[in-house]
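Support request, please re-run this one:
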Amino acid sequence: MRIGVITEPEGESRVAIVPSSIKKLVRAGYEVAIQEGAGKLSNYSDKDYTAAGAEIVDREKALKSPFLVCVRFPEEADFFEGQIIACIADPFRHPDRIKLCNSRKATLLSMDMIPRRLSRAQSMDVNSSQDNLAGYKAVLLGASMVPKGVPMMTTSAGTVRPAKVVIMGSGVAGLQAIATAKRLGAVVYASDVRKSAAEQIESVGGRFIEVDGMDDFEDESGYAKPLTPEFIKKVNDTVCEVASDADIVITTARIFGRPAPITVPSSAVKSFKSGCVIVDMNADVGGNCEETVYDQIHRTDGGVIVVGTSNLPGTIPTTASMLYSNNLATFAVSLMGEDGFILSEEDDILVGPPEGSDFFVQGMGGVLVCSNGETHRKQTRLEEVM
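Re-run finished. Output below.
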């Protein structure tokens, strides 16, 4: 089975497979064909790939590989019957991608659909690996733009008080953001719609912002549930009040398969102090802040700086590519059995946990979205979207 790796579209600096993963894939029985220059923006050279055992090919040959591995969905690819594509396809927001694959009878493996609660899935969970880096980089961006020092400093000229950082949400990205801000010396406050997150927040150095009436608003997949408009407003009001004198605000609220919820309305931004930096981690799906402009950094009339960088992992592509590659290589190796490559209906990663399992989610399968011209039978929620 030949794996093909291509140069990603403009604006994406990551690469799906890095040289350190090649030997693992070759040992498992794969051949790896890398498009010339595919790793350049991530600082992985063709020479490194060749030394690791990959073949450097032109784009056309890479695209014709039976198993195409990418970061983003390859919109321009001319899929063929039986071809397998593994990438972050975001199928709930882009059901047209499923329709395209079905029209060509190609198999789509959407890595962002991985059943993340399965212990075996954790080493393949691209969402967690990339969100972790995004949370880290969001804090560094905020710290680089805030017009004051972040840690407490005692100097002969006077004492500098530590910056106040507010993190909205404490999933993977939020917890890393809290830990990073704390390491920089900030005083960190954090919120979450899951009351159980308080212990996690405090374990990495944050102070939990509790909202009256808060419960565990988490669905069976481990993602945050959509909330009622009334409770969203209550959470926003409480957290934004805490953030009114903050130096840096990081928003992380993301609902799987839906537009990002507004957690910082324009009215709240007007109450924030001049020089505050808001880093919106969900600019790619609409943004948590009403003032966010996709892929732009701008200053409001009140002096608040709003950062709408859409691809935070892509700003640290060497590390982001390495982690993504580790996820994909582990996944690809799991598909190789004694009889060679197989997409098994018994594989929970591919099709989701069976009914009756503690991790079963009605209407949700695994990363196997469609094959042989049909959406997988367990992906009924996707069928509804389509």
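The chain has twelve helices and 19 strands. The chain has two domains: 2-125+318-376, 133-311.
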